[in-house]
Amino acid sequence: MASTMALEIIPLGGLGEIGMNLMVYGYGDKLLVVDCGLAFPNPDTPGVDLIIPDTQFLAENRDRIVGFVMTHGHEDHIGALPYIWPDLEGPIYGTAMTLGLLKGKFREHNLLNRVTMVQVNYRQAFQLGPFSIRYIQVTHSIVDSAALAITTPLGTILHTGDFKIDHTPVGGRPTDLHSLAHLGEEGVLALLSDSTNINRPGVTTSEQAITPVFETVFARARGLLLVATFSSNIERIQQIIRAAVVVGRKVVLNGRSMLANVAVARALGFLIIPPDTLVELRDMGRYPREGLLIISTGSQGEPNSSLVRIAAGDHREIVVQEGDMVVFSSKFIPGNERTIWSLINQFVRDGLEVIHEKNMPEIHVSGHAPQEDLKLMLALTKPKFFIPIHGEMRHLRSHCQLAVQMGVAPANGLVMENGDRALLEADALKIVGSVPHGRVFVDGKGVGDVGDIVLRDRLHLSEDGLVVVVLVVDKGSNQILQRPELLTRGVVYEDGSQGLLAEAKDAVENALALGPKALDFSDEEGAGPREIAQRALRRFFKKRLGRRPAVIPLVMEM
Amino acid sequence: MASTMALEIIPLGGLGEIGMNLMVYGYGDKLLVVDCGLAFPNPDTPGVDLIIPDTQFLAENRDRIVGFVMTHGHEDHIGALPYIWPDLEGPIYGTAMTLGLLKGKFREHNLLNRVTMVQVNYRQAFQLGPFSIRYIQVTHSIVDSAALAITTPLGTILHTGDFKIDHTPVGGRPTDLHSLAHLGEEGVLALLSDSTNINRPGVTTSEQAITPVFETVFARARGLLLVATFSSNIERIQQIIRAAVVVGRKVVLNGRSMLANVAVARALGFLIIPPDTLVELRDMGRYPREGLLIISTGSQGEPNSSLVRIAAGDHREIVVQEGDMVVFSSKFIPGNERTIWSLINQFVRDGLEVIHEKNMPEIHVSGHAPQEDLKLMLALTKPKFFIPIHGEMRHLRSHCQLAVQMGVAPANGLVMENGDRALLEADALKIVGSVPHGRVFVDGKGVGDVGDIVLRDRLHLSEDGLVVVVLVVDKGSNQILQRPELLTRGVVYEDGSQGLLAEAKDAVENALALGPKALDFSDEEGAGPREIAQRALRRFFKKRLGRRPAVIPLVMEM
What is this model's ipTM? Predict the structure, then answer.
């Protein structure tokens, strides 16, 4: 436990990666949890639905937790909470939009009646144990985002969450520079700041810069017009709807999360849709193609997403044709390039015009602060200590260098990784140890039962396939009673490989007849039919096919 | 068969994709094969080593083939030839460097003593059946690259291969603009042109522009200096070596293909290495770290590549440390971003400075012509007909639009796809049919035995894993003689799931006792123990885990 005059800083996710943000602050014997996000699977985690942070450390200290404070409503900041919260419990704090989205999640998990959610007001401090917390409005690609000023007797920490400095946001709620300036004057002991766009020079392009782009592009469309964007980007959706009205198109919302998020945002007043603008998907047929604009999810080319089905001609209501236009008002998220391009190629093949950030960069703006915005944050808050958050290692290192350029003492900038435990005192910040941390895989109904061993098996199966050999042996004599059965998946096409499989069975029978020595087993190894069959098949497939399938012997004793 | 006054154009690879280039031209009863490249696997083709074009069409017409002409030595243009050639045979034509690389491949495949390879000279026409072929020197990211002017009684086709227009290449061998100009004046019936960089505005940056960049960057390095680049980019390697000499570092070559390609290029005079410059990897220890520059393969973060092992600390000779520098003088090839960033993050984590095209774009130049170069090609050759090649559908469509802007009649521009069969006559170009085409997977020693079904199995296994259930039944009575055996991979961690697996066995036994009706089998389906066990397990895992593993029943009849 920390001394009473020190603050513990323990990131459990989001440092060294983009996603899965979870930061723990400790003072005295109390812990405050900031954000609780998920990460999406990648080719190294086949079959996994979601990835959440390992919260063993929190579970072991559940009685110390004073609350969960959420900076904003993106999946990589709140998505893991419904999975993690039942083991920990404790009140959840956030802005109206963030809680609106969280309530939907907790409802789906049947947890809504158990949880306490407290809506916070900007600038109004509230106390959680030793932590006095003020929410400070910031601009980001989701409305109602906040930085957190967290004050303890030691001093004030500013945790930015995700932010950019947009002076003219669509909804008229700019980053609260005045509160940041006040904090800087009062004294910020440590700044923990969003590193995502550290490698991008310049200042933020305002979300409003897209308005004229949309109006020009939409006016050019002649047939059906599809606009794909992130369903959480309410300001973007607002702009699409405004431009649709300008060009005289009705709006259709497509995608489950699009409908859900729009409903929450409208109910809270973050999204204004003029009357007679929305058309239900099922009523599309009543309008001419050139009178409709569809706002859709699926901008990342996610398999089974509605947009992928539209491109493949598998969508029931939405059918595209030559002369239609598709606009991707979204980022090519790193790792998704291949699926996005594949989707775009399909639309292009069918004669559609496709607009995206690679052929028209002004069709999207980022939600994260580039270098000059990051400098402004450092200049306003004048922190004594600095810890970069929300980024891969290369982002964190660069951001730390920037902080030093901006006047943070070199010894006062600290690059941390998930699981590090840092101790912040009035005059020192250093890593003093580590806590359990890692990734937990959600697969179907299972949380955590698919671990690294299961994933390694899946990857091995996908690379090399599997051979199962069944031996029926006499319990007493160990004699083989029947010709071995062989089953393969992912190795060869069985219907076309009967000869090869018969040879493989011969190889097993021969090996069993020759005994362990012939396969280089030593006497000490005491190899039985199971081991002999396995080694014989491994060698057979290596020699004949140059492949290394997983070979699994099953012995049935009769 | 085509009429004697028409030319057949049949792409078997490379159209609608980047990679696997193979074009067939037919005149009368003769076929000419231009390039024979491979593609690299992606997450949709797990375990596959290489992908080559399906050449069933060529095999069925092998007696019509007059020869294989190669434009240049990149894998996506020559890499499939050793796999495809044995079934087809016929002489192979190419420039010195291209044949130098091909010979290495044919030697590895034990084919060198069977094959006829003919080295061609630029500008000197040679006749293959009805085709008169002239090689025209072009600049590209591999030396000794060529465009092909293919003349038949119908007229001349210009097949550009991969090219850019670099007026000051490192080796002093610029694109032969004069030959292209002559062709344009004589009359080009059809141009088939490289579309890779159609979406990039402007003109080529010369390869030589990198010289001062290297000198400045290398001069800044204080510790060990690693430079990763493509082993086929001989001009780049030449520049790295020149800059190494300027900054006073000895050069170490690292990676199998780096050593092989450098040997070929030196033997042919394409690469000049001053005496006392090269140091063997095993002798590295004799030199101070700051006196060495390592040129390495692995710039794409390929698993098991030497560079990945260096980053992981698993390389025997090369150990990096804080203060060293890594330079990626290479492209982030689409699809490889994730592995490249992961490699970079590892180096950054260990305190190395890492330079790459995302933080210093001038550290690499592309080998493909951007828009203004493509216009120059169209302007010089003034083709009557135009077919874009070497690109995804979005590239091909854009390039066709550019050709029309440059004066090609809209009806004379044709976007083709793999397997299309187009007929070119003096006044018409149209698609008239299709031929068999597709992808063939090379996996270990097998070529083509891993097909779509095996891949589907591999992907299913990797997503959901596999359950094998073994039933021992009495041959006569169909009675179960033993408790079922269950084996899983990639579903759950077996050691921690014994209870669950016992329940699964119970579910099978119960289902078998209750009979087919209880599982909604109709009488007509005649479900036996195999079908009952399979359906029972599918339902069990769906209900308990929300997962859909492949369930494979194996029935042993005693």
Answer: 0.89
